[in-house]
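Write out this protein's structure.
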Amino acid sequence: IAIVLHASRANPKRVYIGHYDGLQVAEHRGNGRWEARAKVSNTTFSPEVTSLLEIDASTVFVGSQVQGVYQETVTDEKTSINRLGARQGLPEGFTVVGRVADKTIVRTIEGVFSSGGVGSAFAYDSVLTALIGDRTVRYTEDRQGNLYLSTERGIALYNKGQNSSYNADHYAPGEIYQE
């Protein structure tokens, strides 16, 4: 069962498919034909995928229900997977990966962790933890840097201010609101 779909921005002929038991890559081969690679899963990698974040043309971060974050590397020849953890500054367990304020972020039950990119360690981010916290289901950022959060109360909008601060104005239950 496909849980998360992500159309590649770097390779328009590629789609990443997150399943309840692993990750798969599908590629367009022409004449309307799509070819799916074998699902990447084994005894060490079979997460229920919660989210996917394409870092560059060959790298995808995978958030999982209980197994933390994985880094998938996709080339024309093969797909490989590496688990990210304490050495990279990340806790185990439930994770959602995303991109906010030009940072790769990982939401966990312990807070939000951010990194400058592939190879950079993650660190606890107190500003994004205060905004996103554990009440957010999903989040996205628009081109102006405003942050939209899907929470149990509805959709929250934080307007990006100076010095990477966020400003919130009002709340209306059941509508898009600004905290």
